[in-house]
Specification:
The complex is a heterodimer of chains A (120) and B (112).
Chain A lengths: L4 E3 L2 E4 L5 E6 L4 E9 L5 E8 L2 E4 L8 E4 L6 E5 L8 E9 L13 E2 L3 E5 L1
Parallel strand pairs in A: 2-11
Antiparallel strand pairs in A: 1-3, 3-8, 4-5, 4-9, 5-6, 7-8, 9-10, 9-11
Chain B lengths: L8 E5 L4 E6 L7 E8 L6 E6 L4 E2 L4 E4 L5 E6 L8 E9 L13 E6 L1
Parallel strand pairs in B: 1-9
Antiparallel strand pairs in B: 2-7, 3-4, 3-8, 5-6, 6-7, 8-9
Classes of the chains: A mainly beta (120), B mainly beta (112).
Chain lengths: 120, 112
Amino acid sequence: NAGVMQNPRHLVRRRGQEARLRCSPMKGHSHVYWYRQLPEEGLKFMVYLQKENIIDESGMPKERFSAEFPKEGPSILRIQQVVRGDSAAYFCASSPLRPSGRTTRQETQYFGPGTRLLVL
Amino acid sequence: DAKTTQPPSMDCAEGRAANLPCNHSTISGNEYVYWYRQIHSQGPQYIIHGLKNNETNEMASLIITEDRKSSTLILPHATLRDTAVYYCIVRVASNYGQNFVFGPGTRLSVLP
């Protein structure tokens, strides 16, 4: 069972270009989370998605950033008009679909290897 | 989610047990304690989690105090590959997925 996959692993962009980061969750997982880690800092939550729905985007910058998780295909984090401050490691995590009828339970998140974005 | 407090760094001799403490004095009754680690900028790796009972798996043991205000992650025989930043996170159970809030963690150095 393959783990969470992210591509590209490294991405270099010039200021003003667009960056697209992809995340394929683990098989059977339908919850996807994106986190950002600036150099020498901890991970910060950005957005939580289920298939075709954004559930929580409270950590997402209001401008230039968007995320989607279509019915088919990977989740995509899109950064428009990148600036140097966007240089960071972006991690995706996934967790399984919550069974119907269950009330509360803990869902462990499994992280991908990350995409390192460098903006020149 | 409750705030956690961890020492910024610790050393441990190779082959010895590494005991990583975490304080979460404001934890609520429905909040779980999770441990992750991050080895040199790789993606965070899940280690273990628990509610109130001690837990053990192939990687580590988690000891939670009776009042649940603190916990200890134990790596029974630390190796050089266990050198990493270890994150203690408390997280509420929910019908909906919920993000983890990562603090600065403890940087564990396993020394030969």
